[in-house]
Amino acid sequence: MKEDKENTRPIEKIMEIKCEDTEKTEKPKPEKKEAMTKIIIRRLPPSITKEELEDQLQPLPEVDYLEFFSNDSSMYPHVFARAYINFKNQEDIVLFRDRFDGYVFIDNRGQEYPAIVEFAPFQKIAKKRSKKKDAKSGTIDEDNPST
């Protein structure tokens, strides 16, 4: 039987690969354990405004971030407002939680809304984006029709 060169397997060559047992001295990455300072207040009344909330939270400890989100009616029946607060001092969080976790907010119709205070799942603070002015805004009068 004639061997067909195309259909035959090449002869296997045994190769030795030598690896030296050198231990790599990798330094474990230090875990960044930053103190959790951002909290969220959930289940606020749907009709509450940011100003009303700030009035009810007074006296508020020193904060560097307060973001308020009004209710979203598309999420019915969960139409609550919420607020994110980032404290400068971690000790203030415990005092704030003791005071406002379970605090009953009353809306303008007299309905009661017990609030829930907990650490925010995402601890970073949103960056304030500056809105750039559109360079072409208001330039319709400057267009020259080619006639």
TrEMBL record:
Q: Which GO terms describe its molecular function?
A: mRNA binding
Q: Which GO terms describe its biological process?
A: nuclear-transcribed mRNA catabolic process, nonsense-mediated decay; positive regulation of translation
Gene3D superfamilies reported in the protein's UniProt record: 3.30.70.330
UPF3 domain residues: 35-144
Q: Which keywords belong to this entry?
A: Cytoplasm, Nonsense-mediated mRNA decay, Nucleus, RNA-binding
Q: Where in the cell is it found?
A: Cytoplasm; Nucleus
Entry GO CC: cytoplasm; nucleolus; protein-containing complex
Keyword set includes RNA-binding: yes
What residue spans carry the region label Disordered?
A: 1-36, 127-147
Q: What is the top-level taxon of the source organism?
A: Eukaryota
Major place of residence: cytoplasm
Which InterPro entries did the record assign?
Answer: Nucleotide-bd_a/b_plait_sf, RBD_domain_sf, Upf3, UPF3_dom
Family, per entry: Belongs to the RENT3 family.
UniProt-recorded name of the protein: UPF3 domain-containing protein
State the organism's lineage.
Eukaryota, Metazoa, Chordata, Craniata, Vertebrata
| Name of the encoding gene | UPF3B
